[in-house]
Design brief:
Elements lengths: L1 H99 L22
């Protein structure tokens, strides 16, 4: 019977040691699970950040496209204004040339047009 008690004690010590090791393993597994959960949360946060960056990049691209289109329209309008200004300049030159053909008399108060002609002013 002493041998049985000795074996039982030895088995008990082995079980106690195994239980301690199992507890350590359980703690390690819980730590790993916690780390995995934190990594999953971090991964989700990174995914959301990347999606926000992508969305912002797309909005910037759209804004650049709008700015480019507005610039092209501005160039076109500037060219049109330049053409119109050239036309007005040519018209002014023609009028100036026509006015040089008129002879001004001193008693007419230096008027290029007769007195009975009314000039409309805006």
């Amino acid at each position: 019977m002493a041998e049985t008690v000795k074996r039982a004690r030895h088995a008990r010590e082995g079980l106690t040691e195994a239980l301690g090791e199992t507890s350590k393993i359980n703690t390690i597994i819980q730590s790993l699970a916690s780390l995995a959960e934190n990594q999953a949360v971090s991964g989700e946060e990174m995914k959301e950040s990347v999606e926000q960056v992508l969305s912002s990049a797309l909005r910037i691209r759209e804004m650049i496209s709008t700015i480019r289109q507005a610039s092209e329209e501005t160039v076109s309008a500037s060219e049109s204004v330049a053409r119109e200004a050239e036309g007005v300049s040519c018209g002014a030159e023609s009028i100036s040339e026509l006015l040089t053909t008129f002879v001004l008399e001193s008693d007419e108060k230096q008027r290029a047009l007769p007195e009975n002609v009314t000039v409309l002013e805006e």
